[in-house]
């Protein structure tokens, strides 16, 4: 079922707010990764505001759902969602990458409320998500474990080691979200080491696969619901997205994978995101 | 001849004892449960054992997730594949995340024996020592292993524990207290300090006895915790004897010898010789044959001591 008009309006505003944070944070730092943050904005917004069973006032409570950002460079969107969800003050976003702050370029699990693991070396998140999934089963807990992986990141072998583990242990409490924006640092993914027939790949590994438009909040919401309903195997949400989504000059190019907007570019971006 | 026992047996016994008391202890293996004797834990607590398959990186990452979920995971694999392959997972998912994961490297040193160079871990201590927050423990025998496993469980934070496969003499005593980071003085001496780690305690004890016969008073420090290393004990002993020999079943690059050299050169310069494998790979052979080949033997410690002290070598 689609979101109500009010809910749709809420997400329209939230995702715009988060995208403004992303360009402002990277501009503030003079570095960072706007492209893959902008592509994941709807996926993370709907996950944290609709599905994740977490408590920002008690971020470490035992039965919480866990989220692991395996594509750890996309902290601008992750920190923005956490701040908007109340894990830390929104003002703190403008300390992004500051030497005396805690919002490092890649997330540090030890110091930031709502961040359950450090990441930034690609390929590690799904194994960690499985660890939580296995223990939830052992403890008879209903908690769920989510992991966001980049499409370029799928070139890391550990992702597939972990994908085998999720299926072997029937981890239906594990959900992998693939931010399939088609672009990695150097080039289009297909020009580097392609991940064509991704659905077939995950299905062959024993996963349930949902393929969606990752910018359609209703499709995103339904995908998370389908993952919760799916029993006996893990679910991979393959989300077709646009790298740099929402800022015209950042869209669909690898130039903005790891580059910050200057003041002039920030102004243009903020106008588009008004 | 002293009683012999495989360190891995001490490891497995301690793990089961702890598992009976603590239901938050979970064990993972990378398809070496029979060899690592974690199958004994599996038989006793099948729900709390996980064979993650032949995938060390996934093993360590999964263990990190289990720690996030509040458990105390012991992640087991052959030491060289574990520390070599999954180094980055230990760095990011375990140490940088400050997760309470116990990393257990099996088939340590020459106990990989006839498996040959690929399976002989002679660099694992060096790798693990370099990781921030990692504690590195190398017990001497099965008795000390049991105490080390217990200490590792109760210690909050990442630990690397090195476990040998084949039987070695029991040289430590049950009643001897074990404290992470605290060296144990096995002999008081005045002329030279011998610092051993792991199973080299056995050969070092023999060397001390032989030196005594030759009129050399050797002090023997056993260092089971290579990181954090017991600086005070090393400095105090070196201040007294001015001559130090380190002995390890590991490369002299980055292991005990390096750790002691770092302490001495900064705090208490002394004449130092490091005994271990010297920048080389292993070969296939029986454990005794490998210890002979690498000269990880009492006679080498004795001759090195005499050379360092400027004595004429008699034998």
Structural description of this entry:
Chain A is an alpha/beta fold and 274 residues long. In chain A, 41% of the residues lie in helices and 11% in strands. Chain A has a five-stranded parallel sheet, with helices on both faces. In chain A, helix 9 (217-229) links the parallel strand 4 (208-213) and strand 5. In chain A, helix 3 (41-51) runs parallel beside helix 4 (75-84). The radius of gyration of chain A is 17 Å and the shape is globular. Chain A starts with a helix and ends with a helix. The mean pLDDT of chain A is 97. By secondary structure, chain B is of the alpha/beta class. Chain B folds into two domains: 4-169, 3-Layer(aba) Sandwich (Rossmann fold); 184-308, Rossmann fold (3-Layer(aba) Sandwich), CATH 3.40.50.920. Chain B has helices spanning 7-21, 33-36, 39-44, 56-68, 79-85, 87-96, 124-129, 142-154, 200-213, 231-241, 256-267, 287-293, 298-308; strands at residues 4-5, 25-29, 49-51, 72-78, 102-106, 135-137, 159-162, 168-169, 184-187, 192-196, 218-222, 225-227, 243-251, 271-277. A seven-stranded mixed sheet of chain B has the order 3-2-4-5-7-6-12, with helices on both faces. Chain B has a five-stranded mixed sheet with strand order 9-11-10-13-14, with helices on both faces. At the A-B interface, helix 5 and helix 6 of A face helix 4 and helix 6 of B.
């Amino acid at each position: 079922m689609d979101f109500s008009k009010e809910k749709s309006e809420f997400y329209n505003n939230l995702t715009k707010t988060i995208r403004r944070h992303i360009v402002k944070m990277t501009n503030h730092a003079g570095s960072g990764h706007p492209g893959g943050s902008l592509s994941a904005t709807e996926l993370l917004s709907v996950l944290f505001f609709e599905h994740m069973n977490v408590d920002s006032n008690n971020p470490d409570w035992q039965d919480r759902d866990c989220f692991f950002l395996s594509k750890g460079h996309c902290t601008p969107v992750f920190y923005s969602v956490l701040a908007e969800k109340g894990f830390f003050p929104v003002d703190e976003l403008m300390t992004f990458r500051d030497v005396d702050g805690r919002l490092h370029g890649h997330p540090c699990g030890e110091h930031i409320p709502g961040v359950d693991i450090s990441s930034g070396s690609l390929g590690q998140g799904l194994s960690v998500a499985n660890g939580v999934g296995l223990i939830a089963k052992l403890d008879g807990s209903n908690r769920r474990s989510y992991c966001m992986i980049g499409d370029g990141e799928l070139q890391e072998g550990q992702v597939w080691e972990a994908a085998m583990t999720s299926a072997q242990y029937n981890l239906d409490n594990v959900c992998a979200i693939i931010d399939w924006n088609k672009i990695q640092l150097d080039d289009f993914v297909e020009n580097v080491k392609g991940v064509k027939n991704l659905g077939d790949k995950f299905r062959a590994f024993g996963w349930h696969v949902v393929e969606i438009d990752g910018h359609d909040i209703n499709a995103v919401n339904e995908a998370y619901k389908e993952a919760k309903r799916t029993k006996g195997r893990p679910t991979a949400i393959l989300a077709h997205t646009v790298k740099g989504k929402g800022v015209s000059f950042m869209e669909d190019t690898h130039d903005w994978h790891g580059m910050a907007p200057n003041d002039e570019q920030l102004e243009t971006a903020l106008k588009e995101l008004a | 001849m002293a009683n012999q026992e495989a360190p891995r047996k001490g490891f497995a016994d301690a793990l089961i004892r702890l598992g009976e008391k603590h239901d938050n202890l979970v064990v993972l293996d990378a398809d070496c449960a029979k060899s690592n004797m974690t199958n004994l834990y599996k038989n006793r607590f099948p729900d709390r054992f996980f064979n993650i398959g032949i995938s060390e990186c996934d093993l360590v990452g999964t263990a990190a997730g289990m720690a996030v979920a509040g458990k105390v995971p012991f992640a087991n694999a052959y030491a060289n594949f574990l520390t070599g392959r999954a180094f980055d997972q230990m760095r990011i998912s375990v140490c940088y995340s400050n997760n309470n994961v116990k990393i257990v490297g099996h088939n340590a040193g020459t106990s990989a024996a006839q498996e040959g160079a690929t399976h002989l871990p002679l660099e694992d201590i060096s790798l693990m020592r370099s990781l921030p927050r990692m504690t590195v423990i190398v017990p001497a025998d099965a008795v000390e292993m049991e105490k080390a496993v217990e200490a590792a469980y109760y210690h909050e934070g990442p630990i690397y524990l090195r476990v040998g496969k084949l039987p070695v003499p029991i040289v430590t005593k049950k009643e001897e207290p074990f404290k992470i980071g605290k060296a144990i003085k096995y002999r008081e001496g005045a002329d030279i300090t011998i610092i051993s780690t792991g199973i080299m305690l056995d050969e070092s004890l023999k060397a001390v006895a032989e030196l005594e016969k030759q009129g050399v008073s050797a002090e023997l420090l056993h260092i089971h915790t290579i990181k954090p290393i017991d600086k005070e004990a090393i400095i105090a002993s070196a201040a007294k004897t001015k001559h130090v020999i380190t002995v390890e079943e590991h490369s002299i690059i980055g292991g005990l010898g390096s750790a002691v050299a770092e302490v001495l050169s900064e705090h208490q310069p002394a004449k130092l010789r490091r005994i271990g494998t010297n920048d080389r790979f292993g070969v296939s052979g029986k454990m005794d044959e490998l210890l002979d080949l690498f000269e990880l033997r009492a006679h080498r410690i004795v001759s090195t001591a005499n050379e360092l002290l400027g004595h004429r070598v008699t034998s």
